[in-house]
Amino acid sequence: MTTSDQSSRLPGYFSLFASLGTLVCCALPSLLVLVGLGASVASIVSAAPWLVTLSRQKELVFAVTGLLITGNAYYVYRVTPRLLVERGVCEPGDDSACATASRFSRISLLFSAGIYVAGFVVAFALGPLLTVLG
Fold this sequence. Notes:
By secondary structure, this protein is mainly alpha-helical. The protein has helices spanning 3-34, 38-47, 50-56, 58-86, 97-133.
C-alpha cells in the first residue's frame, strides 16, 4: 500500500471513528436505558467514567463528528475523483484497484453517516422523549 493510498483512506477512518464515538457516548446508553438495561449503563459508566464528561458535551461531539463526515463526503465525491484523473493514476471508467478503493471509501462513508444519524436520533430525539415520558 502506497503513501497515497493510506492518505486517501485517512478521512474515511476519521469519520468512521468519530461516528462510532457519538454512538458510544450518547446514543448507546440512551438505547440501553430504553430497553430496560439501566444497570448495564451504570456498569459501563463505572468502568469508563470519561463517558460522562463526553456525554455532557454531546452537542460539541455531534458538531465535530458532523463536520468530519461532511468533509469526508466532499473529499470522497469531489476531490478524490478529480485528483485521480488529474494525476493519471486512474483512467475514467477503469475497473481496477482504484474502483475498489473508491467503493470501500464510499461504503465506509455511508456506514459512518448511518451510525451518525442513528446516534443523532437517539441522543436528540429519543432522549428528550424519554425524559418527558419518564
